[in-house]
Amino acid sequence: MHRKVHKIGSSLMISLPFEWVKANKLAAKEELPVNIRESELVISAREPSPIARFITISLNFDSDAFKRNPSFYLRSLLGSVYKLGFDTVRLTDVAEFLKSAIRKTCAQLIGFEIVDERGSTIVIRNLVKPSDAELEQLFRKQFHITDTILALLCEGIKSGKRDDDAAREYLLLLERTTDYTKRLTLEKNTERYLLIWTFEKLARELVYLYTESDFKRMSVKIKNYLNSVFGYVGAVSDAVFSFDFKKTLALQKEKDLLLYEQGPALFSRVGKMDVLALHHSMNVVRRSWDAVGPLILFSVKKMSAE
To answer: Which DSSP category does 88 fall into?
Structure first.
C-alpha cells in the first residue's frame, strides 16, 4: 500500500487508511504510538505488548558468604531481576539447601511463581499482568503503610512501649509492594520509580529508629524533637503523594530548622542513649527531603506536556 505525502503549513503529513481506522475503531484526536526504526515509521493502533524477557542464572557460587546467608543473596539476586522486568528466570545448579530459600523469596515477589522444578533446575515465571489503575492503588498503599509506621513511632513515644514485630511486618509489606511497583515503573515512569525508592529508604530508617530506641529512657528534649520530625515527615508525605510541588517547597524552612539548627544544637545537650535516636531522626529528615528531586522532575514533565 502507498500513501501520498501532503504538505500542511511547515509539516508533511499522510492520511491513515480508512479500512484500518474503521477496524481499530479510531477517532479524531486520539494519540497513537509511533516508533522510528531506521528508514521505517511504525504506527500502531495501541501500545504493542511487551516482549517477555528471559534470563538464565547459575547458582554455582563458590562463596562462603553466600553459603552462610543464602536467603539474603537470593533475595537480592531475584529481587534485582524482578525489578528489572524479567518475566522468566531459569535457575540452574540449584543445591537442595537453596530450594527453600528460593520458594520464600518468590512468595515475597508479587507475580513470581515457580512453574517448573526438575533436579537442579528451577523455572520462575511472572504470572501477573498489571494495569495502570493497579499502579495508582499500589502508590496509595505505600503512602498508607508509611503513614502507619509513623503512627507506630508516635504511639511509642507517647506510651513508652514498642511493638517491634508489627513494625517489621509493616516494613516487609512495604518492601513487597515497593518491589512490585518498581517493576511496573522502571521503564515507564522515572519520577515515580525514584519516589518509591526514596520512601522505601525512609520507611527503613523509620523502622530502625523505632526498633532501636528506648522510649522509656528517652529524654523529653529528644521526644519533642522526634514529634517535630514526624509531623514534618507526615506533611512532606502528604504533599509528595498528592504531587503538590509548591506545598512541598513550602516545607523547606522547617526542614532547614530541624536539620541545621535544632538537631545539631541537641547533640551537645543529650546523653549517649539519645545520640543514636537523634542521629537517625536527622536521617529521616534527609530521606524525606530526597523526595523533592523526583517531584521536580514530575512537575517539569507536566509543564512541558502542557
So the answer is: E
Report the SS3 class of residue 137: helix
CA distances to 110, 148, 284, 287 from 255, in Å: 35, 22, 11, 11
pLDDT digits (tens, 9 = 90+) for 32-77: 877 776 567 788 776 655 556 889 998 887 777 677 787 888 888 8
Q: How far apart are CA 142 and CA 237, in angstroms?
A: 10
Structure confidence by residue, pLDDT tens digits, 97-109: 888 889 988 888 8
Assess if residue 78 is contained within a domain: yes
The partner residues of 124 in beta bridges, in order of sequence, read: 89, 114
Domain extent for 64: 54-126
Amino acid of residue 306: E
Is the pTM above the cut of 0.90?
A: no
Task: Give yes or no: residues 74 and 192 share one domain.
Answer: no
Cell output for 292: 523533592
Instruction: Calculate the CA dihedral of residues 122, 123, 129, 130 and round it to 10 degrees.
Output: 40
Count of CB atoms within 10 A of residue 234's CB? 16
Q: Rg (Cα) of the chain, in Å, rounded?
A: 25
